[in-house]
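Researcher: Re-running this chain for the archive, since the previous output was lost when a drive failed. Same request as before.
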Amino acid sequence: MFSFSNVLLPTAVVALVVALGACSSNSTSSGDVPFAGDSRSSDPAAAEQRLAANPNVPDSLHLLSPGRAGRLRLNMSERELLKRVPATQLRRTTYQDKGATYPAYEMLDAQKPDAPASVLHLLPDSVKGGYRLRRIRIYDPQYRTAEGIGVGSPFGAARQTMGLTRVRDTPAGFAGVSGLVKMAWVIDPNSLPAKHADEMNSADIPPAARITCVLLYQ
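Model: Regenerated structure tokens:
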């Protein structure tokens, strides 16, 4: 005898299998995973490709701004610094200032370990104890301002963008100093006259002179 139940049961089973298959397919789709991030933002290879395509446009890890160099911030405590930068990228060293010796770090770049290390000067914190970040010396050309100015840029570009007026001696070398943004742009000594004054007008510096270091200070 013909029975509707014999037809409906297999049909229901098939429908259930199809529905479960659809759910399984949706659950494995990366587009439906909540809070899924874009791995390209932390992928060193992708970052290197971006830098190669746009050498004068820094990513967030290499952006220079007043008081900041990537993830570093002037006046941050040494403890906070060590939380932000992996120990494998840091090497302890020291520096001299007015006859006194203070601790410092040389910081390697995570994406390009063979790039010139940045130098981080520490100073005792008389209020909270321990040490805080006093100065940052940047030698790595990957670090640039939002305008694209950094190591390797012509001094004329920094003068035009940063409004530099005077050039004088600094702990990092002879540099154009911008008191407004608290940055100094160290000039290649080969671009300077053999004998020059301790302080010069920035207009006397050849526009094509290259920047060899960027100093962030307080």
